[in-house]
Design brief:
Elements lengths: L8 H11 L4 E2 L4 H4 L14 E3 L4 H14 L3 E4 L16 E4 L6 E5 L4 E4 L5 H9 L3 E2 L12 H7 L6 H4 L6 E7 L5 E3 L13 H5 L8 E8 L1 E2 L3 E9 L2 H13 L6 E6 H11 L10 E9 L2 H17 L4 E4 L3 H12 L1 H8 L1 E8 L5 H15 L2 E7 L4 E8 L4 H21 L24 H14 L23
Parallel strand pairs: 2-4, 3-4
Antiparallel strand pairs: 1-2, 5-6, 6-10, 7-11, 8-9, 8-10, 12-14, 12-15, 13-14, 13-17, 16-18, 17-18
The structure holds flavin-adenine dinucleotide (FAD).
The site of flavin-adenine dinucleotide has 37 residues, from β3, α5, β10 and α12.
């Protein structure tokens, strides 16, 4: 196992000089927060956490890491689901939470310039006030940060129409592991000068450089939207209905699938009945646009398509309150599932037309291995979150029991031309499975890129590439 230099009291003092004593956390219980994210129940131990405010401070922290051989784990809001922000080898956690300024909303060029610690929802609301829209909206939008979204190439319920984070990143400023800073361009719509380093950083999970500023593309905010919920008596029928919507040539702004077990978890979590709770599956649809009549027409057409595809019933949200009620069920599913039992999430993604086969395969695997699972997700994107549940509090036993089932689920996904993660990243939780969907040559090229950015291997070690890492510690 790789070993690194420890954080000594002298290092803590040097960090205090860089970012100010109030922004260096080296004692529990505050420090423990920086040792976990939202991935399963994993807890690691950061030796120290620092909260820089400027790019120059980030550079100074990275120079210190480069000089001393202490690893650095970048961190946003810690909502990640693949363990990307976990300090698996200890060292310094570099949290960008104080770098949270919206630097500019440029209405002439339709771009926003932001620091990485801006919360997704805060950006959405700020640009919304001037009639603009930043579409990538993870269900965690109320807390996750733009830097974390960029590092994970985050998606969300509206990506089926509008695309992922990568489609909105025009350029970045970033700090290399040795402390050098670079910019990848400006507010340009077109710029093919050399390799697209900005796009390379999107989805790089904090393993290549620390994003310190982002220039993001905005679009005009659609003036109208309508939401519809359809109930189905089988998951299979619902999954086939997703394909029927694709074939109808209408692109909804949201196309989500939720299976019954997820609805039950949502009811328990919200403490109230959810609409169509006795259905075996639901599809949540949103259609948006600038012309009210065509939005209504498209929504009615999608409703018809779903009924023709076998929906039992469909309900139109006719008030903002009803819309919010339907959305609240979808947005709570991550937290709701977490309350049901310990779980491991398989963030599968397949071509959209293969969703029915994927869901059938998942149920086959669950029956064969005797496991419980809860599936839901961005079906319009072909991205289904399969949460494999276990009642065992013992990690090793869980691993023993669940790993073969997880491998079988990923085998189903990859056999359908899919991947082991659609939007949550590889981190440390999925690194052992990366080879299931990337060939040895692609793995070698990726490793070469990592080595070029980070020759000493000090930035977010133990992530993306399979590595022997220490076991998690007990929760503090
Ligand atoms: C309830 C719930 C719902 C979710 N729904 C979705 C969803 O719909 N779609 C989706 O895509 N994800 C979803 N997620 C996962 C998660 O919210 C996203 O991955 C999000 O992008 C993480 O952002 P964060 O700020 O919390 O980053 P963190 O978890 O803090 O970090 C994530 C990764 O980014 C790196 N990182 C953070 N900041 C920087 C930076 N400035 N520079 C370089 N690297 C950095 C970290 O090292 C780590 O590898 C959900 C999570 C939860 C808990």
């Amino acid at each position: 196992m790789q070993t690194f230099a420890p954080v000594t009291p002298e290092i803590v003092e040097r960090l205090q000089t860089i970012v100010g004593a109030a922004n260096v956390i080296h004692r529990d219980p505050e420090l423990a927060v920086y040792g976990r994210d939202e991935t399963e129940d994993l807890q690691y131990r950061a030796e120290v956490a620092v909260k820089p405010r400027t790019t120059a401070e980030v550079q100074a922290v990275m120079r210190l890491s480069d000089e001393t051989g202490i690893p650095v784990t970048p961190r946003g809001a810690g909502t990640g689901l693949s363990g990307g922000a976990l300090p698996v080898f200890g060292g310094i956690v570099l949290s960008v939470e104080r770098m949270n300024d919206i630097l500019e909303i440029d209405e002439a060029n339709l771009v926003a310039r932001v620091q990485p610690g801006v919360i997704n929802q805060v950006l959405q609301e700020a640009v919304g006030e001037v009639g603009l829209y930043y579409p990538p909206d993870p269900a965690s939008w109320g807390s996750c940060q733009i830097g974390g979204n960029i590092a994970e190439n985050a998606g969300g319920p509206h990506c089926v129409k509008y695309g992922l984070t990568k489609d909105y990143v025009l350029s970045l400023e970033a700090v290399l592991p040795n402390g050098d800073v670079f910019r990848t361009g400006g507010k340009l719509r077109k710029d093919v000068a050399g390799y697209q380093l900005g796009q390379l950083l999107v989805g790089s999970e904090g393993t290549l450089a620390i994003v310190t500023e982002a220039t993001l593309r905005l679009i005009p905010k659609p003036a109208h939207k309508r939401v519809l919920l359809a109930a189905f008596d089988s998951l299979d029928t619902a999954a086939n209905a997703i394909v029927a919507v694709y074939k109808s040539r209408i692109t909804p702004s949201t196309l989500e699938i939720i299976e019954k077990a997820a609805l039950e978890a949502a009811e328990e979590h919200l403490g109230r009945p959810v609409p169509y709770s006795d259905a075996e599956a639901q599809i949540l649809v949103e259609v948006d646009g600038f012309d009210e009549e065509s939005v209504d027409r498209d929504l009615m057409r999608v409703g018809e398509v779903l009924m023709e595809a076998g929906a039992l019933d469909a309900m139109l949200a006719d008030t903002p309150a009803k819309e919010e009620e339907l959305w609240s069920v979808r947005r709570c599913l991550g937290e709701a599932t977490k309350k049901v039992a310990a779980y491991v999430e398989c963030d599968t993604a397949v071509p959209p037309s293969a969703v029915p086969e994927l869901l059938r395969g998942v149920r086959r695997v669950a029956a064969e291995y005797g496991i419980r699972q809860i599936s839901y997700g961005h079906a319009g994107d072909g991205n289904i979150h399969v949460n494999v549940l276990t009642d065992s509090p013992d990690r090793e036993e869980r691993e023993r029991k669940l790993t073969p089932a997880i491998e079988a689920i990923f085998a189903v996904a990859t056999s359908l031309g899919g991947t082991i993660t659609g939007e949550h990243g590889v981190g440390c939780a999925q690194s052992r499975y990366l080879k299931l969907c990337r060939d040895p040559v692609a793995m070698r090229v990726m490793k070469g890129i990592k080595d070029a950015f980070d020759p000493k291997g000090l930035l977010n070690p133990g992530k993306v590439f399979e590595a022997k890492i220490p076991p998690p510690v007990a929760a503090v």
